[in-house]
Amino acid sequence: MQEYCDLILLDNHHRILMIQRDCDDRIAGPGAWSLVGGRLQLSETPLIGIIRETEEEIGLKIRSPKLLGIVEDEWNGKSVKHHIFMLLVGKFHAIQLQEGVGYAWLTIDEIAQLGDKLVPWFNRVYSSSVRLAIHKT
Known about the structure:
Shape: globular
Order of helices and strands: EEEEHEEEHH
Strand order of the largest sheet: 4-1-6-5
Number of helices: 3
Distance between the termini: 32 Å
Strand content: 35-45%
Number of strands: 7
Structural class: alpha+beta
Low-confidence stretches: none
Helix content: 10-25%
């Protein structure tokens, strides 16, 4: 089973950091919008993975993201597991986007308006966790 780690990064206005993925047909969901995160490396814990992915993708060193839950899904006929974390950042420094072609801080309603511009698994895997994260802040 492939394992992934994902981060719901919230600002003090309940907006979520969304990343527009690279437009590379070799990756899943090219050009689509998603959360920060990615596949865990061999022998990597989900916590270490999300810390690494966050620094790699947006140049932000995080310390204590909270695990919201684990969601199992299927992608291209394979079982996958997503470890979904959240972190409230309050006032935020500028993003240093290192992967992807763009980013935006979006409300849950703005994310819903993206529709088919979201990664195909967004609604199945992330939607309930995003609502839970906003409710907890």
